[in-house]
Each structure stands twice: as C-alpha cells, then as structure tokens.
Write a structure and sequence with these properties.
20 strands, about 5% helix, seven-stranded parallel beta sheet, about 190 residues, mainly beta, about 50% strand
C-alpha cells in the first residue's frame, strides 16, 4: 500500500495506520478509508479517523493508545473477541453509525471496555452474546481512575446472556473512581435475551 494513493490500497487497517503515522506531521488529522472487506485488528492512536462504507467495512478488535485530541470512526463494523473496543487512549474517541459485535467471549468481559480518555458511541448497533460464569460484567464497562467522559446515546443494544444463578449482568457497568468522571446513557433501545 501507499498513503494518499487509492490505486495502491493497504491489505490491513494496521498497515495503513502505521504508514500514516510515519507520514503525517504531528497535530494533523488523517483518515483511513475502508472499502468492503475484512481488514484485521487495529491499534489506533489519536488524530487518525476511520471511515467505512457501511457494514461491509469490517475490522477489529480495536485498541486505542497514546494521547492527543480525538479520533472518529464512522460507517464500519468493529468485530472482535471481548472486548471488541478497548479504549485506553488518552483522547476523545467517537464511534458513529457503526456495528459493534464480538466473535468470542474471552479476555475482558464485555463488548466495550474503557479505562481512559473520553468515549462517545452514537447511532450504532451493539451486539453481545455471552455464557457467563459467576462474573459481574456489563456490555459496556467504564473503569479506571482518570477523569473521563462517556456518552452512550441513540444506539440499538442487543445482549444474549446464557448465565447461571449468581451471575450479575449490567448493560453498563460503571466503576470509574474519579469524581470528575461522567457516564451518560440516553435514548438507547436495549434488548436482553
């Protein structure tokens, strides 16, 4: 692949992210454009956006790293083992008009896991299925000690839970201990089976 050359696309999203990281000036914002296909996992720094063409633009899991101002993901399908999104970057991550789902129930329980930065998920579909084993977990988990803002709004959230007696399931598990943190959950359609 070659940056800024649509005739020479990258085979994976991470190859594109790495090439952009080497080419861009600090503080500038670049965008990865995804077509139809499966583009693998992504480790996303700040100031790099991902735009797809809809549910056929598939990548994941997504892990965020580093610091900066913001990154935005639109019109994609983010798919991965639990969690599909792990936001640990110290910046604002926006996920808009995308599908978020998990392939297996492994690793950190939940679909979206946030320990740092700010997170905004809006107008997305979140699909999570699990067979829990005496765990307490949420589809969306908001933890950490850093001041963070999370807004989950206007989403369709579907959870299929095959647990046992004693399991505790929450759509959103909020346990960030910083008093300056906020978690807002509004206008979401939630279905738990």
């Amino acid at each position: 692949g070659e940056v800024e050359n649509p005739a020479r696309p990258f085979a994976t999203i991470q190859a594109a992210i790495n090439a952009i990281g080497a080419a861009k000036a600090p503080g500038t914002i670049w965008t990865v454009l995804l077509g139809d296909g499966v583009f693998g996992p992504a480790i996303l720094p700040a100031e790099l956006n991902i735009n797809g063409i809809g549910s056929g633009s598939i990548f994941g899991p997504l892990n965020t790293v580093g610091g900066g101002t913001a990154s935005q993901i639109t019109d994609t399908s983010i798919v991965g083992a639990s969690p599909a999104i792990n936001h640990d970057g110290d910046y604002r991550l926006e996920v808009l008009t995308s599908n978020i789902s998990q392939t297996t129930d492994s690793g950190t329980p939940g679909l979206v896991y946030q320990t740092a930065g700010d997170l905004f998920i809006d107008t997305c579909q979140l699909i999570y299925s699990t067979a829990t084993d005496n765990n307490t977990f949420g589809i969306i988990t908001f933890e950490g000690t850093d001041p963070s803002t999370t807004v989950i709004s206007n989403n369709n959230i579907v959870g299929t839970i095959n647990g046992v007696t004693g399991d505790v399931f929450e759509v959103a598990e909020v346990s960030n201990s910083n008093t300056g943190s906020t978690f807002t959950f509004t206008n979401n359609n939630v279905q738990v089976n």
